[in-house]
Amino acid sequence: MSPQSAALRLGTYYAALFVAVGIHIPFWPLWLQSRGLSASEIGLVAAAGYLTRILASPVIGHLADHGGQRRLLMIRLALAAGVIWLLFPLMGGFLPILVLSVVAIFPFTGLVPLGDTLAMMVVGRHGLDYGRARLWGSLSFIAAATLLGKTLESWPVTALPWLMSGALLLTAAACFGLPDIKVPRHEDKPPSLRPVLLNPLFLLFLGTTALNQMAHTVYYAFATIHWKAAGLSDMVIGLLWSEGVVAEVILFAVSNRVVGRFGPAALLLAAALGGTVRWLILGTTAALPLVVLAQLLHAATFGCAHLGAIHFIARAVPPGLSARTQGIFAAMAIGLAPGLITPFSGRLYESLGGGSYLAMAGLSALSALLAWALMRHWTSGGRITK
Questions:
Q1: Cα dihedral 176, 179, 184, 186 sign
Q2: According to a count of CB atoms within 10 Å of the terminal CB, is the N or C end of the chain lower?
Q3: Backbone angles phi, psi at 69, to 5 degrees
Q4: 57 and 313 in contact (C-beta within 8 Å)?
Q5: Lowest mean pLDDT among 75-84, 143-152, 216-225
């Protein structure tokens, strides 16, 4: 397979996957609200999604490292998620929706770190720029969020589960075209992760990324609801979500140069500092010009954080441990940490509204301290374990 073909296939996969993400993150809270869930209950559903990663990501990472196959497992996960999402229109009430959310998120959330692991293998084999492949996902997110924001001005939010299912089945089709890179199958137990998990540098990395993810919980769960309450239209809200991702796309387009120039740890520091500023702005005003300015910092809070995390794992961890390490990262930093704080974020939003972003700014400041320590001590930028 040529590098051009590999890049096209990766881009197609990310484009399909992020149609689903562009539906789920900005607008799924509106579907939950339409089912009569309160802000606290929406926060609990969001927390359940995060916490599901604690089990899903390590289990799926173990299956990938043990079996050696990535692509086949990704196809099965995307198909399962697409079918399960068709059950949401049948659900009513908080508890049934909560239970089905856990079941649906399990394959969906496990697909993301596994796809990133395969993508980094393809990038390494063919000498590609990860960011340029990943930006097609960001462009797809922009298109989905913008078009859906416009569509929901005339369509009911009850269409969202059907759209999610269609996007996930499209993702399954895109997975068939991915390069089928395998790692050696472990007939016995795969190599132990213990040296990685106990390494102080990896723990610093986990702390940095976990705090950054925790700082996004008010934004992901309540930004659409907050902006709608402030008088912004669905179309404007869709554009605001898209604007943040446009900034992210610009970063991804030059990611090789950025990572080569600054390194993963410095990018994690940039993410934390950007978050401190972004959440301070959103916590003090809903004025559209300032919100537009804050959304540009998504390039830092998400883009730099994502690139920093992906490249840290690729550089610091041996390939035979990569899927499980990516799974542990997803479980702890993207699952457990924000999952524990999201119910608190829901209660905080009920009490303070937009002022709840100020607590998120504090979390970003703590993330910056840990990122600075990681940058100081991971000076070689090489493997943290054999």
A1: negative
A2: C
A3: -105, 135
A4: no
A5: 143-152
Backbone angle region of 156, left / alpha / beta, with phi > 0 → left and psi within -120 to 50 → alpha: beta
Q: What is the predicted pLDDT for the residue at 386?
A: 58
Alpha-carbon span 302 to 340, nearest angstrom:
20
Q: Hey, CA dihedral for 126, 131, 134, 139, is it positive or negative?
A: negative
| DSSP three-state, residue 242 | helix
Residue 218, classed as helix, strand or coil, is helix
Helix (H, G, I), strand (E, B) or coil at 192: coil
What six digits make up the tokens of 187? 């007939």
> Over the chain, what is the mean pLDDT?
86
Distance CA 125, CA 270 (A): 29
The CA distance from 322 to 327, in Å, is: 8
Report the distance separating Cα 313 and Cα 321, nearest Å: 10
Q: Which domains does the chain have, with CATH numbers?
A: 3-177 (1.20.1250.20), 193-377 (1.20.1250.20)
Distance CA 230, CA 236 (A): 12
Q: Is the pLDDT of residue 323 over 80?
A: no
Q: What are 150-159's contacts with CB under 8 Å, separation 24+?
A: 150/234, 150/235, 150/238, 152/27, 152/30, 152/234, 153/233, 153/234, 153/235, 157/27, 157/30, 157/31, 157/34, 158/31, 158/34, 158/89
Q: What is the mean pLDDT of residues 47-58?
A: 79
